[in-house]
Specification:
The two termini are 31 Å apart. The longest helix is centred in the middle third of the chain and has 23 residues. Helix 1 links the parallel strand 1 and strand 2. Helices cover 43% and strands 13% of the residues. The chain has a single domain, classed as Rossmann fold, CATH 3.40.50. It is of the alpha/beta class.
Length: 286
Amino acid sequence: MTLSVEGKRILVTGGSSGIGCAAALALSKAGAEVMLTSRSAERAERVASDIAAASGRRVIGLRLDLASQADIRAFADDFQARFDRLNVLANNAGALWTSRQASPDGYEMTWAVNHLGPMLLTSLLLPLLHKSGAARVVTTASNAHLGGTMAFDGLGLPDSFSHAGAYGRSKLGNVLFTFALARRLEGSDATATCLHPGVVATGFFRFIPVVGPMVRVLATPFLRTPAKGAETLVWLAGDSEAAGLNGGYFYDRKPGRLSPLAEDPAVQDRVWDISSKQVGAVWPLR
């Protein structure tokens, strides 16, 4: 891997733990100016300080709650007021809920945090990405999208619920969003890609309180480390070889397996339109 991120400003959501933290550390050590987010300001600042100590680079911790559209808008306003450029947006934060919950805006929580939040954040920061020259939007998806379905009527509403179905749908949303955005970015100075990190030993299993401990005990020897899971994210965010990639889904730095739904432009556009309305996104495309 040949990273070319010296002096680049990179925002990593969910960067205070797991894959995001590992990616933030690798990118910081390679010379990037990394900003990372967490729902907790204290945790974001503490992890940023730890990474800065390890890399010798400036790292900034920021609070962001992707469940709340108002919080995302306030974050984006503050970010653009404080910083004059952004070279890479890594939409990495994600979560899973075992019971039906609604976001502050009335959407099923998994859909809100994993899909709508990154989509809204991207729309709000896209002007800054365009302003910064060659820019990249990298989204952490998952092979869970292979089992994801899309019922367009009531999409994202907290009605019938299964945690596996909700998670797979949100990850399919990530892939559909990436491909729809990439088509709209063609001919511009920005690109959009997404990835499957593999099955990683992170705190993610805490969201499944009954199954989690059993899975950890039985599966840990077969799980990837966060650093290994972050490799494709880091590659897409900063490797010179990945500079021209636009619209791909990658696993271990190679094209990953896609579901037929994910590759369907009509489905991509339908979910784009519905989701854009759900977050009130205005897309500054060029």
